[in-house]
User: What shape does this take?
Amino acid sequence: MTEARGSAGPNGETHARNAPGAPCWVSLMVHGLAATEEFYGSLFGWEFQPGPQQLGPYVRALLDGHEVAGIGQLPPDRHLPVAWTPYLASEDVDLTAETVRLCGGTVGVGPLDAGDAGRLVIGSDPAGAVFGVWQAAAHLGTSIAGVPGTPAWHELLTFETTSVAKFYETVFGYEEEPVVSADFDYVTLHIAGRPVAGLHGVGNALPRDRGPHWMTYFEAADTDEAVALVVDLGGHVLKPPHDSAHGRVATVADPEGAWFSLIHVER
Assistant: This one.
């Protein structure tokens, strides 16, 4: 992982339209919406507002009145992995969807309208990692950053970075900056010289039941305290808190099994 995105203003607010390819939203589809709201509300202090109704039972998480993330309810007959999904900004989601297909990816949902909020696609890269694409209209995406309870970074865990980096660069126009190391396969994706996401090739260390997947890092005021609260609220620890070059970080799962990371970044 590298530094968190640098688009926050002096008060942690971000209101500008996101550049194409920039992570602009995160969404979670679950089986128990009310219980999930209770978990994340207690963990991050989120409050919830319903809608857009075109997405079915769906709420937007708010922090101090600013939109942070979305949580929706899966239909009872859909036995999909419960996972946080990052959405990458696009100025033309239909064209992006076609490019995803041409580059060996898959489009699973959409393109479809979410009312007047915007237009979306859910797809997967050639290795199978799921991501969203968002063409903003009324809803620009996450409107606050750099404070506890907000997304701080997005990282793809995959088999190897070379081919998937080429996919994301072609579809979204990223510049890449590989880590030159014989035993560490990592690429940072940049937009206009700014780091926006990371790709980490971990080979056979990928969990067999999960495969390649995106990981969202949420900012925590205190990583150790946040991890203890996750456990108290019915979640569990996948990787205990530890110091890294970028802050104190841990990986956890919510009660339905959605993985995410917590990080405290010293500023």
